[in-house]
Design goal:
This protein is mainly beta. 6% of the residues lie in helices and 35% in strands. The strands form 2 sheets. The protein has a 4-stranded antiparallel sheet, with no helix packed on it. It has a two-stranded antiparallel sheet with strand order 2-3. The radius of gyration is 16 Å and the shape is globular. The mean pLDDT is 87.
């Protein structure tokens, strides 16, 4: 499986598989239209620092821990809303 093997290699248990009762993050794409837009510089880092971003196209939905975050090019959470899920690190969240 595309995600199960990396989860196993990095010791992140209960991840990388779509199974009933297990945590999962899912990105639903349209293979016919998935693509990245042009690069854009944004200044949203501390002290006015910049970074480059690219708009994603063809991403139909993003689901994290069962919470629908993005659907049809629209963010569904507001800027101040708490994000579901957590950053996983090798062995720490195992």
């Amino acid at each position: 499986m595309l995600t199960a093997r990396p989860a196993d290699v990095f010791g992140i248990k209960d991840r990388g598989r779509l199974q009933v009762g297990k945590p999962a993050d899912v990105v639903v794409i349209d293979p016919a239209t998935v693509n990245a837009g042009g690069l854009e510089r944004v200044y949203d880092q501390p002290a006015g620092q910049d970074r480059l971003i690219a708009q994603a196209f063809g991403v139909d939905a993003v689901i994290v821990n069962g919470v629908l975050l993005r659907q049809r090019d629209r963010d569904l959470l507001g800027a101040g809303d708490a994000l579901p899920g957590q950053l996983l690190r090798r062995g720490v969240n195992a």
